[in-house]
Amino acid sequence: MGFFDKLKSGLEKTRKGLTENIDRLVGGYAKIDEELLDDLEAILLAADIGVKTTAKLIADIKEGIKTKAITTPQEMRPFLSGRITEMLCAGSVEAPVRSPGMPYVIMVVGVNGVGKTTTIGKLGSFFAQHGQKVLFAAADTFRAAAIDQLEIWGKRSGLEVIKQAENSDPAAVAFDACQAAKARHADFLIIDTAGRLHTKSNLMEELKKVERVVAREIPSAPQEILLVLDATTGQNAINQAKLFSQVVRVSGVVLTKLDGTAKGGVVIAIKHELGLPVRWIGVGEGIDDLRPFDPVDFANALFGDK
Amino acid sequence: MVFEGLADKLQATFKKLRGRGKLSEADVADAMREVRLALLEADVNFKVVKDFVAKVKERSVGLEVMSSLTPAQHVIKIVNEELTALMGGTQSRITISSRPPTVIMLVGLQGAGKTTTAGKLAHMLIKQNKRPLLIAADIYRPAAIKQLQVVGERLGTPVFSLGDKESPVTIAKKGVEHAISLGRDVVIIDTAGRLHINDELMDELANIKQQAKPHEILLVVDAMTGQDAVSVAETFNGRLGLDGVILTKLDGDARGGAALSIKAVTGCPIKFVGMGEKAEALEPFHPDRMASRILGMGDVLSLIEKA
Ligand SMILES: Nc1nc2c(ncn2[C@@H]2O[C@H](COP(=O)(O)OP(=O)(O)OP(=O)(O)O)[C@@H](O)[C@H]2O)c(=O)[nH]1
Ligand SMILES: Nc1nc2c(ncn2[C@@H]2O[C@H](COP(=O)(O)OP(=O)(O)OP(=O)(O)O)[C@@H](O)[C@H]2O)c(=O)[nH]1
Ligand SMILES: [Mg+2]
Ligand SMILES: [Mg+2]
C-alpha cells in the first residue's frame, strides 16, 4: 500500500462520514437552497470543524454561488474540498532545517492521554529507519510507568532512553539528555513530557523550564516543539493549541487516533485561527502508524476520490 | 471565550422586544440560534442540539413574560432546566452485589483515563471499607500492567496479572476467581483502550463480560471529546450494555458537551467525574453543575435562581 492509500484507509471513516453525506445531500437536491446549506453546515459541524470555521466555509460557498463558481449542487464538494485545502496550506511553514553536527531536538507536549509517548515511539522508529541516530529522553517523570512505557518503545527500535528516577525534575532529565545527545553525536533527541492540562499554570511553567534548559545546552534547540492533539477532541483543542503556544514555542501539531471515526476537523480551525500546521498524523497504535501530514492528501482523503 | 457571551447575546436578541405579552415564534427564533451556537461550541453533538433546541423553543414560544425575569433570563432558565433534566438525577453509586465480589469493568477509547480511574475507584471503595482487587486485563499497551501495578502499590491494593501472554478473557475470569479465594469484595477490571469500530477488540470485551459477569460496566470518556462521543457511546452501549459513564479530565476548561450527548443517546447515567490525575480526584456527578458548565455561566444561573 502506498502512502496515499494508507492515509486514505486510515481516514476511511472520516471520509465516509463527510463525503457520503455530502453526496447523499447533493443527490437529493435539484438546486441549491437554504435547506441544502443547512444540511451542509450540519455535516461540517459533525466533523468537529467548529462553529466559526464552518460559518466561514458556508459564507465562502454562498460567495461561490453568487460569483457562479458553484452553479449546481454537484460542484459544492470540490469547491469545499478546495477551500479546506487552501485553509490548511495557507502560509505553510517549512519545517526548520537541521544544523549539521548538532542534535535536532524535538520536544513533544500535550494534554493527558493524547498519544505523546506512542508518537515518540513511532517517530524514533521513522528516523532510525532513515539511518539516523536517535535518543529518547524520559522527561515524563510523573505518570505511573511512563518511563517503562518509553523504554519499551525504545527497545522496539533499539534506541537508548535517557532517564532518571520517577518524580525527578523533568528539566534535569532534559539536561542529561542534551549532554548525552552531544556526547553520543545523536542526530535526533526526542523528549517525552508528562501530559498536562493547558490550564494548569504550574505544570505549564515546568514545560517552559524544560524548553529553557534545552535551549541553553544546544544552540537553536529545541528545533521543534510538537503539540499532540487527539482527533477525538472537540473544540477544546483550540484552547489547548492557544495556551501551549503561549507558554512554549509550538512549531506544529501531531494529530493522533485518526483511525477511529473522529474527523479531526478541529485542526482546520487551528490552522485557520492560529496558523499552526499539522506535521504528522497517527493512524493506529503500531510502530508504523505515523504519516507525514500532507494538507492536499488530507483534504482529498477527507472528500474521497483524488 | 465565545460562549460566556450567551447571556449577553440573548439580552441583545430580545432588545427589540417591547411591551409584555407573549413571546412569539419570531421573537424566539434568533434566541434559539444563539442557544444552538452555544451548545455546539460546547461540543454537544449537533443532532442532540437540534432536538434540544426544538424542545426549548416549544417551551419558549407563547411564554408570558413576567416582570421578575427578562425574556433572555426566561430562555436561559428554560435551557438550564431542560439541560439538567436531560442529564438526569444524581446516581453516583456503584451497585454493590449482595453476593461478593462485585465486579466492575472499565471500558473506553485509548487514553480516556481507564487505568487512572481504576485506581480512583479502588481508593473510593477502600474509604468505604471495601477490599478491592485490580485486574490487569490490558495486554496490549506498552507497560499497561506496570502502570496498574504502580497504581495498586500506591493504594496498597493487590493487582492480579497473568502477564501479557494470556488472553484478557482468561485474565479477567481467573482474576475474579482469585478475588473470591482471597476474599476481596470488589473487583475492578482494567481493559485496554480500543476503538469502537474495532470488531475484534469489541468482541473481546463481550467475551470478558460473559466470563467475568460484571455488575457494572462503566464507559470512561474524556470530557474533551467532540462530536464523535455519540457514536462511541452508542457502539459501546450497543455491544455491552453500559451501566454508567465516568467523565474524566474535567479539571481543565473543557465545556464537556459530551456529557449531554452521551446521556441523550444512551440514557446511561453519568456516575462520576475525574478531576485530576491523583487517586482522590474522583467526584460524584452533579447534573446542575454540568449544565451551568456547558452553558458557561454559573453566575447568571445563580442570579436567575434567586429571581
Ligand atoms: N487508535 C490509536 N491509538 C493511539 C494512537 N496514538 C496513540 N494511541 C493510544 O492512545 C493511548 C495513549 O497513548 P500515549 O502515547 O500513552 O499518550 P500520552 O499522551 O503519552 O499519555 P500521557 O503521557 O498519559 O499524557 C495508548 O493506548 C496508545 O496506544 C493512534 O494514532 N491511534
Ligand atoms: N487532568 C486529568 N488527567 C487525567 C484524569 N484521568 C486520567 N488522566 C490522565 O490521562 C492520561 C491517560 O490516563 P490512563 O489512565 O492511562 O488512560 P487509559 O484509558 O487507561 O489509557 P489506555 O490504557 O492507553 O487506553 C494519564 O496521563 C492520566 O494521568 C483526570 O481526571 N484529569
Ligand atoms: Mg506519555
Ligand atoms: Mg490503561
UniProtKB/TrEMBL annotation, chain A:
Domain SRP54-type proteins GTP-binding: 103-304
GO term, biological process aspect, one: SRP-dependent cotranslational protein targeting to membrane
Molecular function per GO: GTP binding; GTPase activity; signal recognition particle binding
UniProt membrane topology term: Peripheral membrane protein
Annotated GO CC locations: cytoplasm; plasma membrane
Alphabetical keyword list: Cell membrane, Cytoplasm, GTP-binding, Hydrolase, Membrane, Nucleotide-binding, Receptor
Keyword Hydrolase in record: yes
Domain Signal recognition particle SRP54 helical bundle span(s) in chain numbering: 7-88
Superkingdom as given in the UniProt entry: Bacteria
Similarity section: Belongs to the GTP-binding SRP family. FtsY subfamily.
Function statement: Involved in targeting and insertion of nascent membrane proteins into the cytoplasmic membrane. Acts as a receptor for the complex formed by the signal recognition particle (SRP) and the ribosome-nascent chain (RNC).
Subunit structure: Part of the signal recognition particle protein translocation system, which is composed of SRP and FtsY.
Protein name stated in the entry: Signal recognition particle receptor FtsY
Organism: Anaerosporomusa subterranea
